[in-house]
Amino acid sequence: MTAALFCRDVSKSLGGRMVLSALNLEVNAGEVVSLLGASGSGKTTLLRIVAGLANPDSGVVSVAGREVWNARSVVAPEQRRIGMVFQDYALWPHMTVAKNLSFGLRSQGLNDREIDKRVSHALEVARLSALRERYPSELSGGQQQRVAIARCLAGRPSLMLFDEPLSNLDAALREDMRMEMMELVRDEGTTVLYVTHDQADAMAVSDRIAIMRAGSIAQLDTPQRIYDTPADPFVANFIGGFSLIEGQAGDGWFKPGGDDSAPLRTISHLSGNGLLVVRPEDARPRDTHPTNVLKGIVQARAFQGRCWRLSVAVGPQRLRLDWPEGPAIGSAIEFSLPPERCLILAT
Amino acid sequence: MTISQKDGALALAGGAVRASMTRSSSAGSRQFWRGALPVYLLFFVLIGLPLGLVLVQAIVPGLFNPRGMDFRLNPAALLQALASSRVAVSIVHSLQLAGAVAITATALGGAFAFLVQRCSLPWRGVIVSLPWLVFLTPSYLKALAWVLLMSPAGYLAQFGLLPPALGQAFFGLPGLVFVHTLGLFPMASFILGSALTGLGSEFEDAARVSGASPLGVWLRINGPLLAPALALSLIVIFAEVLSDFGMASTIARSSNFGVLTYGIYAAASDYPVDFPLAGSQALVLLLLVVVVVLADRLLRRQKDFRLISGRSKAARIYDLGAWRWPVAIAGLIVAVLALYGPLIAIIVRASSQTLGHGLAWDNLTTANLAQALSLGTAANAALGSSLVYAAITAVLACGTALLLAIRLEAIGGVLRPVVLGLSLGAVAVPGIVLGFGYILLWNQVPGFRDSVFPRYGDASLLVTGYVAAALPYCLIVILSAVGQLAPNLGDAARLQGVGGLGRILQITLPLVLLSVATAFLLTFIRTVFELPMSQMLIPQSGPAAPSMILKLFSHDRDGLASALALTAMVATGTIGGAAWLVLNRFAAFRRTSALPVERTAS
């Protein structure tokens, strides 16, 4: 099957700094892939290169089997048949919702009947039919977002790009908007490349996530595998909430550095210096896994509804734990970790 | 809220500055040069080349020798000109006048801004609109009106309001300072008013809770924060007076108070024409303006502040109590002196047969206005020509500025600040110097001299000169608006398959329409009354309205001159006002639709 998007050895430097470094990425038709990374990791640059709004220094970019950028030829953005939902939605404020949708179709030379058909369908899918004569300023944030998506859908692009479309929304709205947005694109079976710096967004919307680090992809996998088995300390650090404890690893055991507890049992077989990945939700009462216990002092606590989030000092190192109670700050705490959840990463 | 030293210049266009993605491919560069080069070339030919010729001609005086071009560098003519007592006196006069007016206009404008921005005043509407109306009235019309008021047989003398000593003093430095101050205080008012508006009450609140007295707040907090605006006002007004030609060719000329701008005009226009002398004075004037612009840059780099975080609270409004009435009356007196008095003088003079008989019933006539309005008269032809020239100029200048602004926003990088800096600098270039440059370029340089369009002595060259004079500020106005547009709006259209022209016409232009219209109307109004180019490049077909008004005044036909000035003001005001109303209504929904909305759940 032809990939909906194929990037091979794409490199780009800006102001003498390497922003993308021989990056490879393949996105299958109908798949939603997120580019997740911190500011400056190159995710937006890659998105703009795919869109044609920026040119790489080298490499090949193909969309639906057609090379849109290589060293010899460039297909202009307006000819790539790519849709993009911008961070600020980029709705044309002087056009009604219907005109926002039809403007691009008219430029493509479609006849009025076809334009009307496509606009009506896109508005219907996005549940915007009643708002077709409104201006963007007369819409709520969620409605604006749906218009931006409908505008892309009306163009029937071979690939849709999302540039942090939820970053303008407050936390309470993000989840609702996210679900609504993905419902729209999933229903249409559209291929999506989604840029975000928020791991919760990426986890929720993606079939696969590409974690970006300094212009290259550190790990490309399903959300669950990235969560369960981060490829390296960078990825583990980037998936928010994980704590990393330095120590010595042996065949099936891990001894935290600077702590006199007994070694923990793990399923890893690394030897030498290592990092233990501790997910907050993995902490259990001492007696659940009595042979896998760590002791610490509570440094801080915060009530989070379903549980307390504790900051616990284990020797010289700190861990974040989810705990059913809120022990006093300064009190001692003992907890256990399931051996099968004790992942060790090489440093 | 935190304050930090500002580290960059170009504050005027600060809102327009944004980062853009670089286009690295050679294909992109080629495309850029294909699109942008003609616009830059046009900018160079319209402004760069004439100014360059003025500079070169000052140090290569044989360049345009009728007996044969001599390309040798010879500063002797420049030194000789500078050593002549007439030029030296002109320089001293220009500096004296500019220095005095910078102080007086800044003081008056600052007081006015404080009253308008920080005090609760009665008759506020009348007082607030004053600076704009004064600002839009050309200096030579204000000067001519004051001549009607202050001359020995003028209106104030007829009413017994003018002591003879005061009348004599008016035609000299004091009178020039007085009229310039009344004409230029709006600039100071705009600059300081804007600074006062941005000065939220949180600074005062913080100082007061820290124990500062009200006076201490102004001396230690507000004063230092306003100091850059104060200095900017002094600098801008100084440069404006140096470059002014309207007052120079009216009150200053009749007072025998020689200044540089009129010296350039006289050397380039009066027989025998002396290009080296004109060039020398133009060079001195340009250097003075450059020094002022550099001082402005230096000052902003070192002393300006900017807010880096927080939300500004509304400024504190002072209740003047019983003082509000005397203060409001003082504001109205300024209004009368700066606008209504001169305007009434022009109306009265336009409606009377002679100045000396004043407001006597048998002196009233409609003959002047009838002549100005009748088709076929020279005055009416001048007015008609000016309106047409102004309309063509506004279309060309705004169209070019829009294209240039879009290109500059698209490419970003080094060229953008360079061109923007040149534009800001070009705004400060005295019109008379640019006009002189046009004479040199289009009357002397082979290739340009033989050009059919535009042609020297033809209205086409005058319009070209008008466009050159208007282009820099059109560019600044439109570039500010284009810079405010989210770049994603164009990118979104591009990804929807819309081509370059489609994006300009259907995305960019509708969204910056109000700014383009503002630039259009400003250009239109300024061009109808533009004096230096009109005087330097009088077409053989007949002078434009500003030249005609001055000519009529100098030939003691001040009644017809006033009628022509009045007709021009009414025509321009009517056309401009009507256009503004229509455009404002048309663009109203766009303004509101461009406002950010609160993100709420659907």
- Count all strands of chain A and give the number: 20
Helix and strand element order of chain B: EHHHHHHHHHHHHHEHHHHHHHHHHHH
**How far do the termini of chain B sit from each other?**
34 Å
Q: How many strands, what sense, and barrel or not for the largest sheet of chain B?
A: 2 strands, antiparallel
Identify the quaternary structure here.
heterodimer
> What is the SS-derived class of chain B?
mainly alpha
Assign a percent range to the helix content of chain A.
10-25%
Largest interface: A-B, 52 and 36 residues
Give start-end ranges of low-pLDDT stretches of chain B.
1-28, 593-602
CA-based gyration radius of chain B: 25 Å
Arithmetic mean of pLDDT of chain A: 91
Radius of gyration of chain A: 24 Å
Number of helices of chain A: 8
Through-space gap between termini of chain A? 38 Å
Order of helices and strands of chain A: EEEHEEEHHHEHEHEEHHEEEEEEEEEE
Class by alpha and beta content of chain A: alpha+beta
Strand order of the largest sheet of chain B: 1-2
Shape verdict of chain B: globular
> What is the count of DSSP helices of chain B, taking H or I runs of 4+ residues?
25
Strand content of chain B: under 5%
Strand sequence of the main sheet of chain A, in spatial order? 6-7-8-3-9-10
Note down, in words, how this protein is organized.
The complex is a heterodimer of chains A (347) and B (602). Chain A is of the alpha+beta class and 347 residues long. Chain A is built from eight helices and 20 strands. In chain A, helix 2 packs across helix 3 and helix 4 runs parallel beside helix 5. The model of chain A has no long low-confidence stretch (mean pLDDT 91). Mean pLDDT of chain B is 83; it is low at 1-28 and 593-602. Chain B is built from 25 helices and two strands. The longest helix of chain B has 36 residues, at 558-593. The A-B interface holds A 12, 14-15, 45, 48, 51-55, 57, 74, 76-80, 82-84, 86-88, 90-94, 103-105, 107-108, 135-144, 146, 151, 155, 168-170, 173, 176, 180 and B 21-25, 27-28, 486, 488-489, 491-499, 502, 506-507, 510-511, 589-590, 592-595, 597-602.
